[in-house]
Amino acid sequence: MDYHLLIGDRAWSSWSLRGWLLFDAFDLPVRVSHARLYDPQLQEMLAAFPPARTVPALRLPEGTVISESIAIAEELASRHPEAGIWPADPARRATARMLAAEMHVGFQALRDYCPMNLRVSYQDCSPPPAVLADLARFGQLLTHARSRAAAGPWLLGAYCAADVFFTPLAARIAGYNLPVGPEAMAWVTAALSHPSFRRWRAMGMVDGADQPVYRRDWPRRDWPGPAPLAARAVDGQDAVNQSCPCSGGPVSHVLELAGHRYGFCSAFCRDKTLADAAAWPAFMALVGARLPEA
Fold it and tell me: What domain of life (predicted)?
């Protein structure tokens, strides 16, 4: 048996993002099932993960089900101590757990006013005082964490579960152009550039229609994370590869990049690669094999 994770929409489910990052960012294999938020199918799928009532929900290899991302983090850390989910240093580990716990229950004003939406970035959302207070609290926590760790882009030295739990906050800062100081923005930039987050967002860009409840009528800007490579979808099945770099399945959909055509097993595999080609190592290895030597 394997780990089986149930998630909601990637573009909007911040708790699902946390659950998935705990696997992908720490190189732990997992089977993922996906359902749309606010759709009866989600409740039908949750019924197969008792007693979970929300996503993410995780079935452990022996069959036990746990929900709540903070519980998932602790259980995975117990089962995979080598993965580095929490810092090895006791003081940093305690600080990381404190940060994750506060993120788990706090920042309610920011959550309510700025729901995560990975498909857009707004020029200005006129954040009210309660949201600004949450941002100031994040700055305090960041300063506290940095005082206990060596210099680097992450909260407590190496990337850990505390960074996972705050990643949806980074997405909100990016998506709503929220005001933070230089140190906080440096961490946001690192979080948006993390390979696992880029893969999640790429999938979130293409895995279903927009959810109208998240729409805001504010002027938009380009997403401030890494810019995607200039690829485009093309017709036909002619490609330099005969099997999908994502799944190994036969080619049915094609994109073009730098004058070469690359094949995929489905529209989803092609389109998530179009959304951010550089986020997918197997695809970039295929591209690298076609580039001329310097």
Answer: Bacteria
